[in-house]
Amino acid sequence: MRRVQAPRGPGPGRDVIFVLVDTLRADALGAYGRRPSPSPWIDERAAHSAFFERAFSQAAWTYPSVASFMTSRQPVHLNLHQYLRRDGESMPGLDASLPRLAATMRAHGRHTAGFYTNPFLAPGSGIEQGFDVFEFVGGPGRDVSTAGWVVDATLRWGRVLARQREAGDVSPYFLYLHFMEPHLDYCPPKAFWSPEALAYRGPMDGSSGKLKRKIRSGVPFTPADLSFLRSLYQAEVAYLDTELRRLEAGLRALGLWREGTVLVFAADHGEQFAEHGEFEHGDVHVENVHVPLFIQAAELTPRRLGDVVGLIDLSPTLLELLGLPGLPDAEGRTLLPLLSGGSLPPFPAFTDHGDRHRITTLGWSLLVDHGETLLYDGVLDPNETHSLTAARANETAALRTLLDDHLAQAPAEAVPVARRGIDPATREALRALGYVD
Prior knowledge:
It contains 13 helices and 16 strands. With 437 residues, it is an alpha/beta fold. The chain has one domain: Alkaline Phosphatase, subunit A, CATH 3.40.720. An eight-stranded mixed beta sheet has the order 5-4-6-1-7-10-2-11, with helices on both faces. A four-stranded antiparallel beta sheet has the order 12-13-14-15, with helices on one face. A two-stranded antiparallel sheet has the order 3-16. A hairpin with a 3-residue loop joins β13 and β14. α5 packs parallel to α8. The longest helix is centred in the middle third of the chain and has 31 residues. It is globular, with a radius of gyration of 21 Å.
């Protein structure tokens, strides 16, 4: 493990733990209203944090979402909003010249470590830049619960770091943990299955393969099928919650999680169960882009915040909270005024996914989906069940103008995106997740 000198300058030397949960929709947590709650540890941390009720991801799949909040750039402006090549031969890579969160942390004296389970973040993605340690945990295969592996790997790293601190190295750390639960395959340990799930006798088993075959067959999903899938998804959340509690206990025992430690909790995107006709996370409806977000720090008074914010705001906020320089040309904004009890002018959140786009404001959500424009009342219709495009023509036109302006800021010529070849192990991991055939 690389030794890092203690930071010099005015920035506080506090440790930072950034927990990123893949595919976690906000309403899957008790903190966002799920009853009964599958997430007591997460709920408890949220209650002691600055808690965002309306946070939105900038993309509906992992790679552009993570690249966006690590660089504070819009995916469409990075040319990263498109899907990977379905042949499974290559994936996009982030421009090496872009400033990013981890590199800034390291440049100012922090040891940077990341443990991840999503193969999209493998070396060559550009996400690894700025990390002293960036380790893929797990691998392909059904019936694998990887959250425990991530915690185990983190605690192994923690024991090494604790020994370094005992030897006098007081460098603070930035720790990024990317958990895969509750992403497909939904395969939580049986101890977390509900009685309803245990009693299910239908064709679904929680695997990506069975789900895709069912979709291709054209045979409608029964209410029991949908209920079973949702139940397994919630069981994965419950399993993850217990592992996060174990993570905290382990790091506290090592002296690495203290009262001054900053905790960031977020998700890269959500998940859908045919609410709008699709599964997984293929569109930009609310269930795919409304994500949990909270920040716990000693100087932040716990409060619930109803402002619309984006994950793109995370890096500017965290860097300012730590007293560190911001990212050059960041497109997100610092949320520190909100965290400190003040206010910010309302600003919309944009989400892009191929030719599907979205703008979310305090009162409205406008989606452009394969050319079709949909307008939803974000207050009276939060689940986006009834489009008001025709009835509210003025609001539709105004939001469409804002969205068009956002898209027009992309370079006139497509930004070159490095393509990285996929090694056999990564290809197999992607296949196991259902991303390549």
